[in-house]
């Protein structure tokens, strides 16, 4: 039995694995939990992040508007399934007005570190880069310096310092629908200046694990276990009809997370349902958040479906690690 290092969260959403189901991740039966028109202005609500907050949950939601501009909105839930999303986007405060200029904001992650909730997102500042801000209460939000120069996407913080430094995974990219991309690890003393970059994982060329041959990117905040950091990530293949986004996982060394102990050869989840295969961008599943319960080892994933709606899926730390070890590259 592997152990999740973290809090007990006995009230996370949960459904048992269906009888005879073979894959390591199973879907919530009433998916999608958030529909495309969840707020009056939205065209789509997907690729969103949630965390435990007070006696329920809070989140940062990617809502693309009916003019199809991308922004992030705060939301609240008692049960993690039924969400009330604010009708106006998050407004960040900063003393520096240059920072607040934005072309777009999308694909948020939320990470509680020490005393506050840090939000990272893909921030349009002369192209995509990693924005960072924080909140204590999901009412007031403060923006910090962008972590990197453009171009970068998928900034994902670790939930504690490692070797005395804050740590972040990211995926350097280009200014468009990037046709390449590996995962890197960066370190910081203050969450402002990032360096000591390490390469974590590359795409897999050729035919061996082709679902992750074009680009990969970190998903939810890495889950600390007694065997290492459990990272769930997305992997992309280029087909004659465009990109297909699937999910994989890896186990990273606990003290040197740029060292990969296991990495899934087979994907752990692939678009199969109507709401994953049909939408604004078909055949996309894109995980951005996980809730975990240390007592039971349960993991609840929040993932964007076809760039249109938001789904919920379940697994456990043992289910995922057993599958990973049996199917590692
Ligand atoms: C990526 C990001 C994601 C999106 C995905 C599939 O480049 O823009 O937000 O889900 O493409 O379209």
From TrEMBL:
Organism: Vallitalea guaymasensis
GO molecular function: glycosyltransferase activity; hydrolase activity
UniProt keyword annotation of Transferase present: yes
CDD domains according to UniProt: GH130 (cd08993)
Family note: Belongs to the glycosyl hydrolase 130 family.
Pfam families: Glyco_hydro_130
Protein's recorded name: Glycoside hydrolase family 130 protein
Signal peptide: none
Keyword field contains Transferase: yes
Keywords assigned: Glycosyltransferase, Hydrolase, Transferase
């Amino acid at each position: 039995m592997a152990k999740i290092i973290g809090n007990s969260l006995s009230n996370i959403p949960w459904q048992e694995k269906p009888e005879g189901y073979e894959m390591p991740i199973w879907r919530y039966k009433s998916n999608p939990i958030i529909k495309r028109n969840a707020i009056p202005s939205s065209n789509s609500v997907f690729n969103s992040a949630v965390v435990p907050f007070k006696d329920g949950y809070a989140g940062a939601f990617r809502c693309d508007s009916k003019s199809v501009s991308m922004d992030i909105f705060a939301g609240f839930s008692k049960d993690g399934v039924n969400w009330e999303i604010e009708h106006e986007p998050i407004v960040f405060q900063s003393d520096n007005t240059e920072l607040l200029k934005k072309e777009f904001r999308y694909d948020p992650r939320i990470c509680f570190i020490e005393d506050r909730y840090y939000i990272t997102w893909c921030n349009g500042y002369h192209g995509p880069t990693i924005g960072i801000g924080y909140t204590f209460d999901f009412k007031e939000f403060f923006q910090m310096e962008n972590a990197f120069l453009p171009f970068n996407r998928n900034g994902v913080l670790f939930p504690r310092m490692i070797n005395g430094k804050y740590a972040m995974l990211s995926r350097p990219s280009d200014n468009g629908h990037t046709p390449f991309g590996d995962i890197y690890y960066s370190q910081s003393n203050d969450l402002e200046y990032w360096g000591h970059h390490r390469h974590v994982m590359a795409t897999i060329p050729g035919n061996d694990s082709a679902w992750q041959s074009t680009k990969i990117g970190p998903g939810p905040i890495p889950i600390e276990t007694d065997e290492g950091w459990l990272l769930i990530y997305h992997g992309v293949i280029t087909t004659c009809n465009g990109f297909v986004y699937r999910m994989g996982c890896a186990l990273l060394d606990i003290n040197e997370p740029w060292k990969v102990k296991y990495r899934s050869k087979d994907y752990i989840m692939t678009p199969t349902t109507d709401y994953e295969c049909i939408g604004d961008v078909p055949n996309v599943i894109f995980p951005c958040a996980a809730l975990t319960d240390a007592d039971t080892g349960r993991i609840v994933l929040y993932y964007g479906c076809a760039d249109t709606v938001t789904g919920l899926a379940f697994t456990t730390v043992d289910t995922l690690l057993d599958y990973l070890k049996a199917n590692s590259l």
